[in-house]
Structures are given as C-alpha cells and as structure tokens.
Amino acid sequence: MPVGFQYIICEKNEGIATITLNRPDALNAWSTELAQEFLGAMEDARNDESVKVVIITGAGEKAFSAGADIKAMKGMTALKARELSNMGYKICNAIETIEKPVIAAINGYALGGGMEVSMACDFRVASDKARMGQTEINIGLIPGWGGTQRLTRLVGKARAKELVYTGKIVDASTALQWGLVNMVVAATELMIAVRQFAQELAGKAPVAVKVAKALIDKGAEMNLESALALEREGFGVVASSEDLQEGVSAFTEKRKPAWKGK
Ligand code: CAA
Fold first, then answer.
1. I need a surface site. Which of 119, 155, 254, 261 has the fewest CB within 10 A?
2. Cα gap 130→120, rounded to integer Å
3. Of 38, 147, 160, which is closest to residue 102 (Cα–Cα)?
4. pLDDT tens figures, 177-230
5. Hey, which of 70, 82, 148 would you mutate to test ligand 1's pocket, going by the most ligand atoms within 8 Å of its Cβ?
6. Quick check: 140 pLDDT over 60?
7. Does the annotation mark 116 as catalytic?
8. Cα(180)–Cα(88) distance, rounded to whole angstroms?
9. Sequence-separated (6 or more) residues with CB below 8 Å from residue 212
10. How far apart are CA 221 and CA 242, in angstroms?
C-alpha cells in the first residue's frame, strides 16, 4: 500500500521501498518540508526488517532533483546556509548509514544537491535522458551537500574540478564514461531495470551485504593497512552468521538458499 506524504511518495513492495521526491513543479528541488518527509521515510526503511533495498527517484518526466531550493536562498544568512548544508548532510548521511543498498534511479536532471544526494547512494542508474551537474557556481555558490568531496572520490580531482568550477551539465553517456553512474538504460525502461536490480540485491544474504557496505564505505576513508584489518574483522563477523551456514548447505544440496538475515 502506498503511504502518502505531501512532498514524497513512499511505496513498499516485495522488500523494496521506493521513495519518490514529489515536487515536480519545482523539478523536485529539496525544500525543508521535503527533506523532513524524506528523513522520516528513510528512518522507517531503516527500522522495517522487511525492507531489503531502497530506491530513490523523482516524480515527473524531467528531474530526479534540481538541487536545493534556490528560491528559498534569497537573503539567506550564513547561519541559514549552515542549516541548509546540515540538512544535506543529514539526507546523505541517512542514505550512507542505512545498512541496506540504496539505488538512485536518475530519471532526468540531477543537479546541485540532487546530484549530491545521488552520489551518497550505493548505486546510480541513469535514464538516457539524465543530465548531471554541480551547477552551484552559476548562482555564485559551491556544492554544500558533499559535492566537493564525494564527487572527487568518485571521479577524481580533475573531473570534479571541471564540473564544480564550470557548472557544466553532462549527459548520461558522459556520466557513464566518467564513472558517475553504474549504468544507463532507456528512459522508458528505467524503473523496470532499477526494480530488477533491486530484486537481485534483495535476494542476497543480508548480513553479508550490510557488512560489505560498511567495509567499502568506511575502508575507502582509511589507510590500506587499517582498512584491511577492518575487513578481516568483518569477515569474521559475516562468517559467524547463520546465513553462511545456510549458503554452504544450499550450495552442497544444490538448492536456493533461504537467508535468515542473522
Ligand atoms: N530550486 C527551486 N526551484 C527550481 C529549482 C531549484 N533548484 N530548479 C528548478 N526550479 C523551478 C523553476 O524555478 C521553475 O519554476 P517556475 O515555473 O515557478 O518558474 C520550475 O522549477 C521549472 O524549471 P525551469 O522553468 O527552469 O525548467 P527548464 O527546463 O527551463 O530548466 C533547469 C531546467 C536547467 C534544471 C533549470 O531549472 C535550472 O538550472 N535549475 C537550477 C539548477 C541548479 O542550479 N541547482 C543547484 C541548486 S543550489 C544547491 O543545490 C546547493 C547545494 O549544494 C545543496
């Protein structure tokens, strides 16, 4: 059953929660209200054991999200800007710390904060109509929701600087070539492809997925020796799960595993 909010649509189906940013008239720009609803939906997905994967997308044909609400920036004080930056931090943090895969289904423009939110997701699947950019420079601003950092980690300094200094918008094939997105599919196929991918992920051993997410995300910020030590600990934790025993039994008995998530 879809649960109705004013600025998002949240649906849960077969272990997949889909959160649709729903301000299509403003190209799904993030208002405070939208952000609050989104954080509520993410908290619900975090606590709902039946949810295995989260998909984030945008309502309408044109945009995933055109970023923070520019109209709310008129006369913005430094303190308000700090609040806005904190809001983006909370949104991206909710995505990165949920112990489940999160997929951004980029159905159109992903600009400024919209692109930054997509970069906090584990995967980005773009429609061939997707357009991505850190366009803040065009209004005399810089990315404030992690764009200077996550973008650099994703595509390297040279391309991050090209995008952030120029505000240029790249098309889906360039985004794919630069490693900004995992795959590009025809616009009409986007949600079918993303749901298929989500179903595939939802069928994997939950403890292993959860620990792999933490190791890859945390390890990428550490020196190699410390990250490898963390991996050895994580390996021990996953090896002690009932899921490993189930996986081994299923392999030897030539059947599909029935994961317990413990
Ligand atoms: N905030 C508020 N409203 C926005 C918006 C935004 N970020 N982006 C688009 N809109 C609104 C437009 O104002 C317009 O509303 P009205 O009909 O009331 O005028 C409506 O959405 C449709 O947009 P356009 O008419 O501009 O559509 P277009 O097809 O001509 O252009 C676009 C599309 C190129 C995406 C253009 O809308 C645009 O450049 N938007 C701004 C994108 C941007 O710079 N985002 C960065 C925001 S700053 C940020 O995100 C900071 C951060 O790091 C957190």
1. 254
2. 17
3. 38
4. 999 999 999 999 999 999 999 999 999 999 999 999 999 999 999 999 999 999
5. 70
6. yes
7. yes
8. 19
9. 234
10. 30
